[in-house]
Amino acid sequence: MQRKIKAVLFVLLFLTQITLDRYRHVLIATPDLLYLILVYVAVTAGPVRTIVTATLLGWMTDFFSVGMVGLFGFSRVLSAYLVNRVSRFLDLTRMHFVFFLISFSLAISNLVAGLLLQWIYAFPVEPGLIFYQPLLTALLGVLILSVPMVKRELNVH
């Protein structure tokens, strides 16, 4: 049962991310739902599986956003490794630690990607990418995790 719920949740997050990316130009801020999958893998798996998953999800993010393959792949690997190491020292049964972990690591990931985009393409670093998206993603992650059935099945603590 646990594997089915995880698979359904991951597929729903993935499909919702694709839908949100289609309407990104209309929306003020969009959460990064693929990053929630990455944080779950980083918290529950070892460093090698985390880095491989971060690379794959980063490439998907590149495909949906800027089109430069490897940019978000690199930034997601850095933040996933950070989450993997730091999560061992946090009490993830407390939601404010989960919120902090998601928002801070996504802000760092987006800052690295934004600085690389600025350096390569001279794109401006948008404050929505560094402030609004991490907070919205963390809030959504905490809301998803607060559902008792999901919390029990994901077993992150």
What does this 3D model show about the protein?
With 157 residues, the protein is mainly α. The chain has a single domain (2-154), classed as Arp2/3 complex 21 kDa subunit ARPC3 (Orthogonal Bundle), CATH 1.10.1760. It contains 7 helices and no strands. It has helices spanning 2-22, 33-44, 47-64, 71-86, 95-121, 127-145, 148-154. It starts with a helix and ends with a helix.
Blueprint (SSEs and pairs):
Elements: H1 2-22, H2 33-44, H3 47-64, H4 71-86, H5 95-121, H6 127-145, H7 148-154
Helix pairs in contact: 1-2, 2-3, 2-4, 3-4, 4-5, 5-6
Which range does the strand content fall in? under 5%
- Which spans of ≥5 residues are poorly predicted at pLDDT below 50? none
Based on Cα principal axes, name the global outline: globular
Radius of gyration: 15 Å
Find the count of extended strands (DSSP E, 2+ residues).
0
CATH class: Mainly Alpha
Distance between the termini: 18 Å
List keywords for this structure.
7 helices; globular; 157 residues; single chain; mainly alpha; 76% helix; Arp2/3 complex 21 kDa subunit ARPC3
Quick overview:
With 157 residues, this protein is an all-alpha fold.
